[in-house]
Amino acid sequence: MEIDDLEAVHEIETASFPNTSWNMESFLKELTVNQFAHYFVMEENDEIVGYCGLWMVIDQSQITTIAIAKHARGNGLGNALLKYVKEYAAEQSDFLSLEVSVDNEPAMKLYEKEDFKYGGVRKDYYGPGKDAHVMWVKLK
């Protein structure tokens, strides 16, 4: 991901997570300040249709955000992006984790398909009454 990608990424972010979306400044800081951050975009026909953020610290990685544009869902792009990020993280990390809304069944099914396990619940992670499952996968 490059700074020029941020407008398209932010559009997907706000459409995917209307109540909890990151602002442009947060993405910009991730790209320019956070030394542990690695961000990727997925393109189809020269259009950004997905993205993923990853923090890699010592031997553990965490997906910070991942989304596919609504019009591009259901075609295996989310699975392809997740597989790519898992392979990338495995170069340095033993484990990969993420948080996902307890209401986001499609995402949880995708993560389960990629061998992610449930590790607990973060109460109110997305706001009052909006919990998240912590999920993780062993990479090595």
Automatic annotation (TrEMBL):
<dbReference type="Pfam" id="PF00583">
    <property type="entry name" value="Acetyltransf_1"/>
</dbReference>
<comment type="similarity">
    <text>Belongs to the acetyltransferase family. RimI subfamily.</text>
</comment>
<dbReference type="InterPro" id="IPR016181">
    <property type="entry name" value="Acyl_CoA_acyltransferase"/>
</dbReference>
<dbReference type="GO" id="GO:0005737">
    <property type="term" value="C:cytoplasm"/>
</dbReference>
<dbReference type="InterPro" id="IPR000182">
    <property type="entry name" value="GNAT_dom"/>
</dbReference>
<comment type="function">
    <text>Acetylates the N-terminal alanine of ribosomal protein bS18.</text>
</comment>
<dbReference type="GO" id="GO:0008999">
    <property type="term" value="F:protein-N-terminal-alanine acetyltransferase activity"/>
</dbReference>
<dbReference type="InterPro" id="IPR006464">
    <property type="entry name" value="AcTrfase_RimI/Ard1"/>
</dbReference>
<feature type="domain" description="N-acetyltransferase">
    <location>
        <begin position="1"/>
        <end position="140"/>
    </location>
</feature>
<dbReference type="GO" id="GO:0005840">
    <property type="term" value="C:ribosome"/>
</dbReference>
<keyword id="KW-0012">Acyltransferase</keyword>
<keyword id="KW-0689">Ribosomal protein</keyword>
<protein>
    <recommendedName>
        <fullName>[Ribosomal protein bS18]-alanine N-acetyltransferase</fullName>
        <ecNumber>2.3.1.266</ecNumber>
    </recommendedName>
</protein>
<dbReference type="InterPro" id="IPR050680">
    <property type="entry name" value="YpeA/RimI_acetyltransf"/>
</dbReference>
<keyword id="KW-0808">Transferase</keyword>
<keyword id="KW-0687">Ribonucleoprotein</keyword>
<keyword id="KW-0963">Cytoplasm</keyword>
